[in-house]
Specification:
Shape: globular
Number of domains: 4
Oligomer: single chain
Number of helices: 13
Order of helices and strands: HHHEEEEEHEEEHHEEHEHEEHHHEHEEEH
Distance between the termini: 36 Å
CATH class of the largest domain: Alpha Beta
Largest sheet: 5 strands, mixed
Strand content: 15-25%
Number of strands: 17
Structural class: alpha+beta
Length: 388
């Protein structure tokens, strides 16, 4: 249902938001007009920041009843050349903490009223993830710390967004990598956060250790090379006090896996995924001082990651198949599936849900997410249309 700006400003206490988030009232009103701040109706009424507004992160969610603000998770900068970046960025630190960057999807979990909700990076409440975190975490932590937000990675094969099978997780699990305060978004120091998670028996991402800044690049290089063929994504390097923002560094195999996914649905994701990942490969090759044979192997793996999935997609379309991404959900109640189907419609995602299959005391539901742009483009070119 379309709503005019005056109706939205009446719903949102702009003066209060301006004070709490330290942004001018006119910036909030302007963002409402531009639909950068969007109203979302559901079990919890909220406004979400589709993009950053002044200093406020995209994905920030402002709940109306009860009034709560969950700040968007800050973007983490990426280093392509480890040694100079670490020396420059962490010049005020003696050591850095290095944690695993897991390959899943980013979730913020918060207590709103008396309900736990799981927010996507974009600031939407995902009904499926909300059901999962309620099962995985429970209420104890938030009973003692209602003012905090758990930021973590949902990982496993039963993921509607990033299904991964190499973590030896049966369904889906949650690993905390950050804790932040509501309203301010201020982070909890690394070891304090990990101790708190241990106390409440909530899983954390793996800590590889704390390393002197001058020597950290060697340790991180060994960690990345030690991943081998496991497809583990990379590391996040942090100021232990969380005063300086973290930086991330990823493995070559993870980059190639991302490209394979993107170019299977090339007209939906290919451009956005391509340039940055190619640059990462080039800089990593130079920093690791690769010989000609190693560099050629890297080039071959990169090229295959781009071309082979795209060739496969074109052949599928030529044979009359519809190009779709296969994912699956595992739920205790089919009501969650109905809610998730409505959620995908809200996001504008076209999906086909198969009939539920009973696995133990849960329902397994397979879903085909249709990537229409790739379908249309491939069909047109196969039919004789020009590229542009």
């Amino acid at each position: 249902m379309r709503r005019d700006v005056s109706e939205l400003t009446n719903k949102l206490d702009i003066e209060k938001i301006s004070s709490l988030l330290d942004i001018p009232e006119h910036s909030i009103t302007g963002a409402l007009k531009r639909k950068t701040i969007q109203y979302v109706y559901g079990k919890h009424e909220l406004f979400r920041f589709d993009k950053p507004v002044s200093s406020v992160e995209g994905g920030t969610a402002v709940f109306l009843e009860p009034f709560e603000i969950v700040r968007g998770f800050p973007k983490i900068s990426r280093t392509l050349m480890l040694y100079p970046a670490l020396i420059k960025h962490f010049s005020s630190c003696d050591k850095v903490a290095v944690e695993e960057k897991m390959n899943g999807y980013n979730v913020r979990v918060a207590l709103i009223g008396d309900k736990l909700v799981a927010l996507t990076r974009g600031g939407f409440i995902c009904p499926y993830t909300t059901q999962k975190v309620n099962d995985l975490i429970g209420p104890d932590f938030f009973h003692d710390h209602p003012e905090l937000v758990l930021c973590g990675e949902m990982v496993g094969p039963d993921s509607p967004y990033v299904p991964k099978i190499f973590y030896n997780i049966e369904s889906l699990d949650f690993f905390v990598f950050d804790i932040r305060e509501k309203n301010s978004g201020n982070p909890v120091p690394v070891m304090e956060r990990r101790k708190l998670m241990d106390e409440f028996r909530i899983k954390s991402v793996h800590l590889f250790g704390e390393f002197e800044v001058e020597k950290a690049h060697d340790a991180i290089t060994d960690i990345i090379k030690g991943f081998g063929d496991t497809l583990r994504e990379g590391v996040v390097i942090k100021d232990p006090k969380m005063i300086l923002p973290p930086v991330k560094y990823t493995s070559s195999l993870s980059n190639c896996a991302d490209l394979r996914y993107a170019f299977e649905f090339y007209n939906d994701f290919g451009r956005d995924f391509f340039f940055g990942r190619v640059c990462r490969e080039a800089f990593q090759s130079v920093e690791w001082d690769e010989d000609e044979e190693s560099a050629r192997k890297r080039c071959q793996e990169l090229g295959e990651s781009i071309l082979l999935p795209m060739i496969s997609t074109i052949k599928k379309k030529k044979n009359g198949e519809r190009i779709a991404e296969n994912v699956q959900l595992r739920v205790k109640s089919l009501k969650t599936i109905t809610e998730f189907e409505e959620f995908l419609k809200l996001l504008g995602i076209d999906a086909v849900f198969e009939q539920p299959e009973m696995i133990g005391n849960e329902f397994l539901v397979r879903i085909k997410k249709i990537h229409q742009s790739t379908n249309d483009k491939t069909e047109m070119i196969l039919g004789g249309h020009m590229w542009s």
